[in-house]
Amino acid sequence: MTDTANVNPQLLNVLNEIIEMELSGVTRYLHYALMVRGPNRLPIVQFFKEQAIEGFNHAAVIGEKITGLGGHPSLKVAQVTETNNHTINELLKESLEAEKHGVSLYIKALPLTEGHIALEELIREFIRTESEHIEEVQKMLL
Length: 142
Hints:
Blueprint: H1 9-35, H2 41-68, H3 88-109, H4 117-140
């Protein structure tokens, strides 16, 4: 186990924020997939299910990094607000806001990764993938 004396506690806190956000994404996107109605249902449901799986995978990887740094992964899940707006456009708008929040957390973590090159590269990769999701959702909303 890594000596936590060399790990910025703020880094562990932000990584735990990220794991909580990613786990809430699993719930959010599963709910969205279940609520989609209409003729375009199948591709949108598939998109939301893929997002849920990715959220789980990101949470698992971040959790491994937390324990690798000697920390303790959070058991919390960030709150997912139920808006009861289940049109495809509204779900996509909510998704866009969630993705923007996710990118902001990864960007918040990036300067804290100093001295942890593998973690820095991972965070940069997650920023890239989350940014691509934002672009995709923006295109879907046009």
